Amino acid sequence: MEIHWFDSIESTQAYLMDELKASRLQAPVCVGAGIQMTGTGSRGNRWIGTEGNLFISVAFPRNRFPSDLKIESASIYMAFLMKNILSSLGSAVWLKWPNDFYMSEKKIGGVITNLVGDTLVCGIGLNLCSAPEGFGKMDISVSPYDLTKRYCEMFKNLPSWKQIFSKYQLEFEQSRAFFTHHQDAKIALDEAVLLEDGSLMCKGQRIFSLR
To answer: Domains along the chain?
Structure first.
């Protein structure tokens, strides 16, 4: 996968989506930067960080993902690919449902996904070396570019959703002490049931990650 790396950028996600729409870039491709100025986080929040943290967006054709992966759970899948890499490097990072990276009880990053035609665009932000107040940072030392290269290598031989979900299902138990947001409502995860497609059943309501 080709990597386009910038010293600084407004938003890797916005840039990549614009380039795809204008046919100046084609998937599979990755855009990364040393510094991101106006990145997008969950629920419309901004995700901005300092140099040394990770800011990347990856575009991958939808028809080249495993056939058992539903698009509604693509963000979980993309996040867990990164989580697997970090774990192999010795990190204790875990994923809070659906796709937030946590170190112990503090968020250190997250994933956001969008569709541009038949291409999935996934943005990932991670606090590798520094974090704002109230957030955590990575427990291992790894350069943003090296981590990006490792992540892009994963797309040469993607695991099935079933392989990812079998691990994610075990890790989900750590999410039960937390909340998630759905349609501006705060929902406790203590009694949620994780379904095989990555969605949740909460008090009779089915919730997908959708980001």
So the answer is: 2-170 (3.30.930.10)
